[in-house]
Amino acid sequence: MNSILYIVFICSMYLMAYFKLFIDQHQLVVMLLVGIHVAVIMLHRKEINMLSLSLSTLTFKRTSFFIVLQVIFLAVIVTTKQESSQIISLIGMFVCEVVRLRKLPIEVKEQHEVQQLSKKLEEMNGHFLTVRSQRHDFLKHVSALEFLIEHEANHKAKEYFRTLLGEYNTVNQAIKGEDSHISSILLKYKKSAEQTGTDIEYNFNVPVSSLPLKPIHQVQLIANLLENAVEASQSYHDIYHHSALTLKTESHGGIYILEIINNAIFTDKSEIDYMFEKFGTTSKGKDHQGLGTFIISNLVKSYNGRLSFQYIENTINIKIKIPIVKG
């Protein structure tokens, strides 16, 4: 079901319920129930802002249970005039609403994590095949170089060797000191950036794999940061024909510091201030929902970290600091 129709249907049910209560019950009782309803809405503003995303992400089958319960409660309100039954039924509708608002974002997060894991598994397999293919072709490259040297084609041998070394460095920079779940992400986005002409550099004083997060959350954070940065850099490259991206890591005084710097263009400069504060703000264009920045912000907060950013001269600098908790 379309998320807008779903929300309109819910609102219509409440209007019908309140209309019937205004007819059958004392107005003070109805006003008290309306006050409780408003309080519920105010306490769950964040979840309500996410409701449209939750409904558009999840299938109707996974969200219909609450609708069915609320329809049953509404049927009791409409078909009876007994005050206690009507009030209990309306409260039942409230309870369904609260549970739905709290449960659906969790299900969206779980579904996103499963999708991320599936994607990363495919990327890890691709990464493994890349390394295997390089190993498989190593002797062939040595033979080619030997042939060029024997025939005194030194210039061609040097050019061939430079090209070969570049390919090996691309893989080596992504896998050096990293666990497989992170190295596959680094390799993927390095290749993606280079294919579109973006100069990308990884400058790691400490491995990304040592981020003080659970592996699944490491994947989510790094993948979303790099995906946003690569796409923003590509958009910038389309206009100015050059772009750069740098990912840095370091550790100071028990704090893990992750920094990503890239070119980006914001058509609406006012969006920058709210980029990590609310769902729906993105630098990728109107076809994107801004879910990546929302996930990044929530992940950093859940590990008691701090996120700061600057946007100067078409370059955005995002810095994340997360305390290193030693068990």
Structure, described:
- Helices cover 66% and strands 12% of the residues.
- It is elongated and about 95 Å long.
- The chain has 327 residues and is an alpha+beta fold.
- It is built from nine helices and five strands.
- This is Sensor histidine kinase.
- It comes from Metabacillus endolithicus.
- Keywords: ATP-binding, Kinase, Membrane, Nucleotide-binding, Transferase, Transmembrane, Transmembrane helix, Two-component regulatory system.
Radius of gyration: 27 Å
Point out poorly predicted stretches: 279-283, 285-289
According to CATH, the fold-level topology of the largest domain is: Heat Shock Protein 90
Distance between the termini: 47 Å
Major β-sheet profile? 5 strands, mixed
Average pLDDT number: 79
Overall helicity? 55-70%
Note the overall shape.
elongated
